[in-house]
Design brief:
Radius of gyration: 13 Å
Number of strands: 5
Order of helices and strands: HHEEEEE
CATH class: Alpha Beta
Shape: globular
CATH topology: Nuclear Transport Factor 2, Chain: A
Amino acid sequence: MTDTSLRNLTREIIQQIADRDLDRIRLEPGSDREDFKLALREYPATFVAIPEHGLDEMDAFKPTSGYVSWCVELPLWTKEEGRSDMWLFLNVREEGGHLVGYVRGVRVP
């Protein structure tokens, strides 16, 4: 896995959020899709695609154990604010030779 592939996967998921294509987003097992959608709907701004420099704020780390390859955390961007205080929390696993992202949630930390 390369840094570029991790960035591309993260960008793709954020684009789905910006496009409000929330049913296509994979959620971590046990996560509630309606809670995820509600958190995004209730945020008082319009989510947009992340600018390239926004990906520089991505924190990606490997957990010491478990089946998750990477944990990713980064702020989302909005039309009104630019960098917002709403963050995306994502688990990334390698499955069948491909990276697959599973959203753990979004929240204001």
